[in-house]
Specification:
Structural class: mainly beta
Radius of gyration: 15 Å
Shape: globular
Length: about 180
């Protein structure tokens, strides 16, 4: 089986309080996520760094003008390229949009709006289930991020040595301390 050939990482996000910021560069994100209290609800709308083991979800400066590319992870550095806005989807309750740096027009998407997508990409906004995300609260205070279009979970791909964020079967993920840290 394709998924049993390697260990997968369960993406759980802990939430720190955050407030909306202007488009000024952000302060550095901590290299590791702080311990989180148990959480049973979705995060509040705002700007966040999505982190796992000192790595942050990253658009990449080289892709700032692109309209379609894979979302990567890189060492947390507090740059605007690692800043993501989480906001409720206006069309479906309990679902969220994840946009690079508020009002950029670049939204997390299941690659090519496809049922079998295995990468997280960014694309211009469409009213599509492949751009909607469930943020499922976990007992450790974090969240599991699940794509609404294909039911697959976000995986930071740490153990395989890749830099792309993947979409994998949720049942194959194992627990890892991950953080969603508010931009202060």
């Amino acid at each position: 089986m394709r998924l049993s050939a390697f260990c997968l990482i369960f993406v759980v996000l802990s939430v720190s309080s955050c407030r909306q910021q202007s488009k000024a560069p952000a302060t550095a994100a901590p290299a590791t996520a702080p311990a989180a209290a148990a959480r049973t609800t979705a995060p509040t709308q705002g700007d966040y760094y999505m982190t796992i083991q000192g790595q942050c979800a990253d658009l990449g400066a080289e892709h700032a003008s692109d309209t379609h590319e894979n979302v990567h992870h890189n060492a947390c550095n507090g740059s605007v390229f690692q800043r993501w806005t989480i906001k409720p989807d206006p069309t479906v309750s309990n679902r969220f949009l994840i946009e690079w740096f508020s009002n950029s027009g670049k939204f997390w998407t299941a690659e090519n709006f496809n049922q079998s997508a295995d990468h997280v990409t960014f694309d211009p906004r469409r009213d599509s289930a492949f751009q909607r995300w469930a943020l499922n609260a976990q007992s450790d205070g974090g969240y599991q991020i699940v794509n609404d279009g294909n039911g697959r979970c976000v995986n930071f791909n740490m153990l395989r040595g890749g830099v792309d964020l993947l979409l994998t079967d949720c049942s194959a993920l194992g627990g890892v301390d991950v953080g969603l840290q508010g931009v202060q």
